[in-house]
Amino acid sequence: MALAFSNLKKGARKIRENPQLFYTIVVAVLIAGAFVLMAERFVRIANDAQERLVNVRIGSLQDAFVAFARDSIGDPENLERKIAEVSRSNETIKSFKIFERRLSTSSPAVFAVIASKDPTETGSSDPGAEFLYSLASSDPRSSFTLESTDGKERLFHTARAIEAADGSVLGVAVTTQTLSQADKAIESSIQRSIAILVAVLIVIMLLFLRHSRIIDYSTLYRKLKEVDQLKDDFISMASHELRTPLSSIRGYAEFIREAPDLSADTKQYAERIDVSAKDLDSLVADILDVSRIEQGRMSFKTERLDASSAVKDVVSSLSLPAKDKGLALSFESKAPEAAILADKDRLRQALTNIIGNAVKYTKQGEVKAAVYAEGGKLFVRISDTGVGMSAEEQKRLFEKFYRIRTKDTEDIKGTGLGLWITAQIIREMKGSISVESIKGVGSHFIIAFPLA
Predict the structure, then answer these.
(1) Could you tell me which of 127, 186, 165, 147 has the C-alpha nearest to residue 55?
(2) Interacting residues of 248 by C-beta distance below 8 A, sequence separation 6+
(3) What CA–CA distance (Å, rounded) separates 421 from 93?
(4) Contact, 120 vs 104, CB < 8 A?
(5) Beta-strand pair 328-333/366-374
C-alpha cells in the first residue's frame, strides 16, 4: 500500500512538472468517453430503427393478410396454407394465429384458434387473447404491438382485426416475431465496439508511456546539454589560463639555454623543458580549436589566396624536420596562378597538419605536395611513402580522438585531434578532404577547393 501511494505521488509530481502529460491524459479520457457515448448512442438508434422496421414490415404483412383473410375466414385450411406461405418467407415470425370470438349463453366468451402456423394449436382456446382481441377491435384498421421477453429473447406480439364489409370484427390475426437475430447482431456490434475501445485505450496508454519516455529523454538531453556546455566553458577557460604559464615556461627555458657557463647537461634539460612546453602548448591550442569549432566560435577571414604560394610556404617551413629524418620533401605546382577563397591562417594550419603528419608517419622515402586544377576546382595532393592504413582505418581517420595504433605508430606522439580539426576547418572554408591509402605502401591526402 505504501509503495503504491509512493508511486502515485511520484506520478502526480511528474504530471505537475510536465503539463504535456496532463494534456495527454485529458485527451485519452475524452477520446474514451466520446467513444463510449457514441457506442451507446449507436446501440440505441439501432434498436429504435430495428423496432420501427419490424413494425412497418409486420404492418404491411398484416394489411395484405387481412384482406385475404376477410374472404377466407370460413376456410381454415386455406388460411393455414397462407399462414405457412407467409411464415416461410419471414423467418422472424415465431407464431401466427387467427382468433375468433365464440359466444355462449352458459359460459364467458371463448377466443378460439381457427388457423395457426402450428396446426396442433387449431381449435384450441387462448384466454390471454382477450386483451389483444379487445385492443385490435377498438381500431380495426390499425395494428397494435406489445413487447415481451422470453428469457433473453425479445418478442413482438402484433394484433390486427379482420373486419367484415359491414364493419364488424370477424377475427383477429396475431403474429409473434422474435428479435433474436437483430439482438444478436447488435450484441455482436457492441462486443466489437468494446474490443475496439479496449484496443484504442491500449494504444493511447502506449502513446502515453512513449510520450512520458520522450519527456524523460528531453529532460535528460537538456541536462546533458547543460553539462556539456559547462564542460566546454571549463575547457575553454582552463586552456586560456594554461597558455600564459606555458609562455613563461618557454621563455625561462630559452633564457636558461642562452645563459653563459652552463654545463651541457643543463642546456639539454632546458631544451627538453622547451620541447615539452611546446608540445603542451600545441595540445592546448588543439583543445581550444575543438571548443571553438563545437561552439561555432571559430572565426574565418575569407580572402582571395594564391594556393600554390600557401602550399610552398608550408613545405619550406617543414623542410628541416624532413631533412633531419632523411626524407625528401618536394613541391610541384601545375596551377601557379590558381586562386581560392580561404582564410590564410586557417589554410596554413590545415596544410601544416597534413604535411606535418606525412613527415611524422614516414620513416623513409619521400613526401610530395602537388597543386593542380581540374573541373573548376583546385586540388592539393600530399603523398607519402609512410606506414599507410587499411580501409577500416580510413573510414574513421577524421573522427575526433581517433589514432591508428600499430607497432609502427606506437612511438609517435599525438592526440587524435589534428585531423578532425583539419577536416572541420577545410569544410568551413567550402572545401573537402579525402584519403587514399595502402597499408605498408603509403597515403595520399587530397584537399579540394572551388577556384575563385
Answers:
(1) 147
(2) none
(3) 90
(4) no
(5) parallel
pTM over 0.70: no
Euclidean distance between CA atoms 241 and 247, whole angstroms: 11
Q: pLDDT tens track of the chain, all 452 residues?
A: 666 666 666 666 766 666 666 777 777 778 777 877 877 787 777 777 666 776 777 777 777 787 788 878 888 888 888 888 888 888 788 888 888 877 665 656 677 888 888 888 888 877 666 777 777 778 887 888 888 887 777 888 888 888 887 777 888 888 888 877 767 777 777 788 778 878 877 887 787 777 777 777 777 888 888 887 777 777 767 666 776 777 787 787 777 777 777 787 887 888 888 777 777 777 778 778 887 888 788 889 999 999 999 999 999 999 999 999 999 999 999 988 899 999 999 999 999 999 999 999 999 999 999 999 999 999 999 999 998 999 899 999 998 888 887 777 777 777 788 899 999 999 999 999 999 999 989 999 999 999 98
Q: Which amino acid is at 80?
A: E
- What whole-number distance in Å separates Cα of residue 241 and Cα of residue 118? 110
Q: Which long-range contacts (CB under 8 A, 24 or more apart) does 370-374 make?
A: 370/331, 370/332, 370/333, 370/334, 371/307, 371/308, 371/311, 371/332, 371/333, 371/334, 371/335, 371/338, 372/333, 372/334, 372/335, 373/334, 373/335, 373/338, 373/451
Which DSSP category does 125 fall into? Answer: B
Phi, psi of 363 (to 5 degrees): -85, -35
**Pick from 158, 179, 180: which is nearest to 97 by CA?**
158
Cα dist from 337 to 304, 305, 334, 430, 432, whole Å: 12, 10, 9, 20, 21
The residue with cell 463510449 is 36
Q: CA dihedral defined by 370, 375, 377, 381, rounded to 10 degrees? A: -20
Identify the three-state secondary structure at position 382: strand
